[in-house]
Design goal:
heterodimer, A: Fumarate Reductase Iron-sulfur Protein, Chain B, domain 2, 5-stranded mixed beta sheet, 7 strands, B: mainly alpha, 3 helical TM bundles of succinate and fumarate reductases, 4 helices
Chain lengths: 281, 125
């Protein structure tokens, strides 16, 4: 590993591809002066500003929240904004688009198949009380333990790093992949949800969790510390229990009633007036 | 729903294999410590011991059960590997058919072999 404490220059080896002019992707090197605290995203911006204005990628928040800048950096799917150059341990930074997806251009992967698989698994709370769900009048009860059953899976930012690392998804386009399956479990484990039956139609078939080898790479690379491999195994367990008629659907949480006879404590100011008009139904 | 059913049976077969293979390992390889199903206090593979086990209805059922579980578990795993190569729908059906046919043939042959040895031991015992 190179000594990165005395870095003065960084070489960005970037995979370039323009579908309108290139028959195949090519690698190009760009030399940049190293600045303290430089992330891979900072480097890409510097390359675009000073050397190659046509370089394309996706990014937005710059703080590991939006999930836009997932890239294949030095042989591993990472968020460009969240990856310090010094953390790579070398002055050579290779950047390619996420594997297992088609490339739109340069570092922009086509994530459509991932989001199609995600949408097919009903990644939202499904309730029998449709009217309440659409026009909520209150909150649903949920204990801390019930929250913990799915909390870590809700930290997913849909960056696609897990999909890029999955050896099964690399070869099998029918397999839904770690992100959609983990999100299917995230909602199945939510005590407010009653959508297991709706999700089961897709999960119990070939695109379900069955082909997961438990390689665990998805959990290794997740920049948010989510454990999709665990979610997939828990999803398998839920489906096996369902086949054996032992699956206990968490009773959809009840609507919390507003306590009666409560008086506002003195000194607490009133809420400010709404800044938008109330929606007329 | 078929994959849900197949996976559940795969897990169930794994549990059966765990128990029966555990029994096999105990009988065959831990005889120095645990002398179970060792009727003549000789080596587990001594003819007298093999003959004694062959007379047992418990072992007849165990052999057939282990055979069925191992065939299903193994062939389901093989099917998963083959399906990861993305065969077309026609080829998938052919693979399914071939595995079911091979599995049934091997199960019937193995069951016949277990029954034949049971009968032989019972008649000559």
């Amino acid at each position: 590993m190179a000594d990165t404490t005395t870095l003065t220059e960084v070489v960005f080896r970037i995979r370039r591809f323009d579908p309108t002019s290139d028959a195949a992707p090519r690698w190009e090197d760009y030399r940049l002066p190293y600045t303290k605290g430089m992330t891979v995203l900072d480097g890409l911006k510097a390359v675009k500003e000073s050397q190659s204005p046509t370089l394309s990628w996706r990014s937005s928040c710059r703080m590991g929240v939006c999930g836009s800048c997932g890239m294949f950096i030095n042989g591993r799917p990472r968020l460009a904004c969240n990856t310090q150059i010094t953390e790579l341990g070398t002055s050579l930074v290779s950047v390619a688009p996420l594997p297992n997806f088609k490339t739109v251009r340069d570092l922009v992967p086509d994530l459509t198949p991932m989001f199609d698989a995600h949408a097919a698994l009903h990644p939202y709370i499904v309730r029998a009380d449709q009217a309440e769900q659409e026009r909520p009048t209150g909150e649903y009860w949920q204990s801390v333990h019930q929250l913990e059953a799915y909390l870590q899976f809700s930290y997913c930012i849909k960056c696609g790093c897990c999909m890029a690392a999955c050896p099964t998804y690399a070869t099998d386009p029918v397999y839904s992949g770690p992100m959609p399956l983990a999100q299917a479990y995230r909602y199945t484990a939510d005590s407010r949800d009653g959508g297991f039956a709706a999700r089961k139609a897709a999960l119990a078939a070939e695109r379900g969790p069955w082909k997961c080898h438990f390689a665990g790479e998805c959990s290794q690379v997740c920049p948010k510390g989510v454990d999709p491999a665990r979610a997939i195994q828990l999803m398998k367990r839920a489906l096996v229990l369902d086949y054996l008629r032992l699956w206990k659907q968490p009773c959809p949480a009840k609507l919390a009633t507003v306590p009666a006879g409560i008086k506002r404590r003195e000194g607490i100011p009133e809420a400010p007036a709404p800044t938008i008009e109330k929606m007329v139904t | 729903m078929r994959d849900q059913r197949l996976w559940t049976w795969h897990v169930g077969a794994g549990a059966v294999i765990l128990v029966l293979l555990g029994l096999h390992m105990t009988v065959m390889h831990l005889d120095a410590f645990v002398r179970v199903f060792n009727a003549t206090a000789e080596e587990p593979i001594a003819w007298s011991n093999v003959f004694a086990r062959a007379q047992s209805t418990f072992f007849l059922v165990s052999y057939v059960l282990l055979l069925g579980a191992a065939l299903f578990h193994g062939f389901y795993g093989l099917r998963t590997i083959v399906f990861e190569l993305n065969p077309g729908d026609g080829l998938k059906k052919a693979v399914n058919g071939a595995l079911v046919a091979a599995g049934l043939a091997l199960f019937l042959f193995g069951t016949w072999a277990a029954w034949a040895s049971f009968e032989f031991a019972r008649v000559n015992g």
